[in-house]
Amino acid sequence: MKRIDQESDLIQVVLIEDEPVTAKLMRLELEKHNFKVHCFLSAKEGLSFIEHHHIDIVLTDIFIPDLDGVNLIKIIRLVNKEIPIIAMSSQPETKYISVSSNAIAAGANSFFPKPVNKKALLEKIVSLI
């Protein structure tokens, strides 16, 4: 991936993840690849930021206490039909198909189980933007 030096040229990522440790680890990994990551522990805060800023891609957990990720994806799609959305969840494998299908049906471009494969996630982000 090409290195970018100016912050304004960085790919703008909104990460909505209610687990602080997971959010920090994901943010640090993405920042290593020159993404500007805006982290939110709350879906409502993340949505407010998306509504008022230029964002290149959204990464969101599906199970967030203040607003479930499927409804969040639907709302984002009302605000911006074009922004790529990657949904994530740590649900057990038995619920994976249901959770991922619901996220895709709501408008997510892709779905990743957690823990997320870093290389696959980075490749997917690059392919979507």
In a few lines, what is going on in this structure?
This protein has 129 residues and is α/β, with parallel strands linked by helices. The protein is built from five helices and five strands.
Describe what you observe in this structure.
The chain is of the alpha/beta class and 129 residues long. It has five helices and five strands, in the order E-H-E-H-E-H-E-H-E-H. It has a five-stranded parallel β-sheet, with helices on both faces. Residues 1-5 have low confidence and may be disordered.
Main sheet record: 5 strands, parallel
Oligomer: single chain
Q: What's the tally of helices?
A: 5
Strand fraction: 15-25%
Number of strands: 5
Uncertain spans: 1-5
Mean pLDDT: 89
General shape? globular
Structural class: alpha/beta
Helix content: 40-55%
Helix and strand sequence: EHEHEHEHEH
Distance between the termini: 13 Å
Strand order of the largest sheet: 2-1-3-4-5
* Rg, Å, rounded: 14 Å
Question: Could you give the topology of this structure?
Answer:
Blueprint: E1 11-16, H1 20-32, E2 35-40, H2 43-52, E3 57-61, H3 69-79, E4 85-89, H4 93-106, E5 110-113, H5 118-128
